[in-house]
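S1.2 Input.
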Amino acid sequence: MRQVNIAILGFGVVGSGVYKLLQENHEGILHREGLDFQVRRILVRDFQNEPNLGLAPRALFTTNLEEILGDPSIYIVVECMGGVEPARTFILSALSAGKTVVTSNKEVISKNWYAFEEAAKSTGAGLYIEATVGGGIPLLRTITDSLQGNNITNVMGIINGTTNYILTSMSEQRRDFADVLKEAQAKGYAEANPSADVEGFDATYKLSILSSLCFHTHIPIEAIHREGITKLTAADFDAAQRLGYEIKLLAIGKKTEGNQVEVRVHPTMIPKTHPLASIRGSFNAVFLTGNAVGDVMLYGRGAGQMPTASAVVGDMVYACHHQGNHRYNTFRNIPDMDAGTHLVKDWESVYFIRTRVADRPGVLSSIAGVFAKHGVSLKSVLQFAEPQCGADGCVAWITFVTHKARELSLQAALREIEEQDSTEAVESVIRVEE
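S1.3 Output.
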């Protein structure tokens, strides 16, 4: 048996979950792993506005980080504060003091990973980040400890539970985005300010970490194309259903010969037969492709108090078993993208495009001509809704599905189409992964 003293920074949802899990499973962890985890300090901002102070003995709480850094008996610091500051400063301070850090904070890791790893190496401390991507799903450890014999060429996944909950409700109940968002906030799936989730920032932070490990090169968040879900409408889901697709916010990474890497987060139509199409509610799933193993999918709760606490405690156990021999990344973990990695901005995709246009002869042929001019081949042209007429004339909704086309060519064609007098709006552009 080995006693391991820890400190928890932040005692919100995740921090209190870690404490709760350590209390509930203490004997099991002791029996299986020979580790006696003892919480010695819990750092909070103040004692007036902390709702969870009653969950642990008051003597454990402090507002002074130095009480943790100066205590040589504390081996692991668990950071659960979220955000960039003061989390960034506290993590750097802990690592510089030789404390091993376990964190669930995807934003601070995606923006400062290189600096943290440099500080950890300088003191021999460990840095463990399983809980930053996929909540309770053992995703990063699968990549680093089980798939080392593979060259991973593709990663595609649902890695934000809030948006998946919203999109599932919009698809199954044909409800508006704003209505479902309010429900998600009431149930605790979405924050009061939901922009990090619905605008794709959260998934972008996670994809930066995930793709860096998959492709063995640092992928900064600035390299990732990002779009959120706020522009999706019931009409998009109606069309998707007719075409045999589901709409998901996907994080997509692909690597081809010559270290060509494309990374993007955006709403995506996928066939109903694809395994990711069946992922409902707040669940997450990630689809990996290795050149030896083929396709692997990992599924589970991607967020929440106890699933995230599960990943944090798993990292704590792993850190203890690797004390004195902590593993660091073997790729160059630098602020920017490595010069040997080439970012693909003009990727290939199938596209779903819905337009609102004047209902008169020649409009369809004119739009088709613009697509052809830019090398975009049309797979199908569909009209799901009847034209509507008013005092200013009639309008029609025309939907196009392309064959594989280049992103930059497609965007150039759409700009020209939008400038035509007969085009009232390009209402939706959704990429399709076949």
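S1.4 Remarks. The CA atoms of residues 122 and 394 lie 69 Å apart.
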